[in-house]
Request: fold
Amino acid sequence: MTTEINVERGLFDEVMVPCYNPMEFIPVKGQGSRVWDQQGNEYIDFAGGIAVSCLGHCHPAMVKALTEQGNKLWHLSNVMTNEPALRLAKKLTEISFAEKVFFSNSGAEANEAALKLARRYAADEFGPEKSEIIAFKQGFHGRTFFTVTVGGQAAYSDGFGPKPGDITHLEYNNVEALRSHISDRTCAVMIEPLQGEGGIVSPTPEFIQTVRELCDKHNALLIFDEVQTGNGRTGHFFAYQGLGITPDILSTAKSLGGGFPIGAMLTTTKLAEHFKPGTHGSTYGGNPLACAVAEAVVDIISQPETLAGVLEREALFRAGLEKINAKYNLFSEVRGKGLLIGAALNEEWQGRARDILVAAGKQGLMILMAGANVVRMTPSLVIEKEEIEEGLARLDKAIASLV
Reply:
């Protein structure tokens, strides 16, 4: 077929499965933290592809890595290994607790691997009755049937028939609920070290310490879902490094590839031994293209100056949001850590996060939501400070249009 197709927003409704509701404009070009649409309108990007574009758009190091690898080798499958995958795995073990890495294509697949490993380990070591997985309400762990069931939001998991069993959801930050429920039947506790989709909710020090202590007491594995919090997002390479505890299994994705699809499950040698050849796999996991780009991303994010810069930028965002709130009185609090920021709307603005998102788009600013009552921002970790200032000015104008 050689007929030229006219690509406009209406084509989405014609040819795409309607599980998304995208904005009316179509971005066609990005550079750093700025994006341009089909009409040449410019936007400042505070969304970062939902915490993915950690180095912005078309970062030179990423372009170079992709181009060089694209001229060498694209795909092998896991019948063989490859150099970029081995180099990336080595670097991830050097900057984390992990000794072994499994590569996947997404955060959902990394979490699927983590959950399957936890169940396999428990069955091998303690028997089939040790199978309960504890997770937390308003959590989010992916869209496969297993991970969406473990995620604590029924709206995402209902309506697809019988769900995977032996999964319990407790209230996040509720120490007593966890203490009274966990038992020797529990094989794993899966938790976000800072809830993302659930509203940008940080754990209390007591809660996160208790989670680790109770897992140890009951021989349960602690799984940290760092799909959104990992790769420098909180100012540490992984969020667990700022919490004073270490998980047994960690999942990462999103920012790991800076926009190129890749995920990974990190764990110890002891646990990894329970995934013998044939027990789990991925056709594209460890793809040379993805791993080459991710290696370039990790090299930059792991630098101390990059991580320190995240906290400097967080301070600028918080100061700017406080100034906006002083004018319009719409936020009850600003939550999060590093550049995973959630501005929670007060009672008068309940349910209006999407209104703000749409209004911001009209002012040339891309932002996100974390539910109907939280405005979320997950920009590039190296966004220019002048762009933060300009983006907040555009947010001010967007809110003014709604008052």
User: Anything to note?
Assistant: The two ends are 50 Å apart (CA to CA). The mean pLDDT is 96.
